[in-house]
Design goal:
6 helices, 140 residues, flat, mainly alpha
């Protein structure tokens, strides 16, 4: 019979050993959750810090990129602004922003299929609504 690497991990634990191992796992899990929570709290504090001393500019008052450069934003708002500016020249940054605001790209195959269907309906002399049966007969 061939030897399996890590075969010791497959042994059956006694109830006492299983309890001890389970406790160690639970303690480690709780420690990891605490560390993750603490890191999130620290990050939230850091993201609310203004970029400069003084009053933070209300984002709704920014009407141009020039205003943006002069504004005193929080770290969070500045990071989002930089990402938005980067999205002008970067498809991946644009895709990230688009996904964050809930817009989804239209599948290219779906667009192609819809365009072909619309063309076929147009050549047949029917509209998309008529072909789908969504238009009721209008009395003359």
């Amino acid at each position: 019979m061939a030897s399996i690497v890590g075969m010791g991990n497959l042994r059956v634990l006694s109830p006492d050993e299983a309890r001890k191992q389970g406790r160690k796992g639970g303690v480690a899990s709780a420690e990891a959750r605490r560390a993750k929570r603490d890191m999130a709290e620290t990050l939230n504090i850091l993201l609310r810090i203004p970029m400069k001393r003084g009053k933070v500019t209300d984002v709704e008052n920014i009407k141009s990129v020039e205003d943006l450069k002069k504004a005193n934003l929080t770290v969070r708002d500045m990071a989002l602004a930089k990402l938005a500016l980067r999205a002008i020249n970067s498809d991946s940054s644009f895709a990230l922003l688009r996904d964050q605001i809930g817009e989804t790209p239209v599948d290219a195959e779906t667009m192609r299929s819809s365009a072909i269907s619309n063309l076929a309906d147009a050549l047949a002399g029917t509209t998309e609504e008529e072909a789908d049966g969504h238009i009721d007969e209008v009395p003359p």
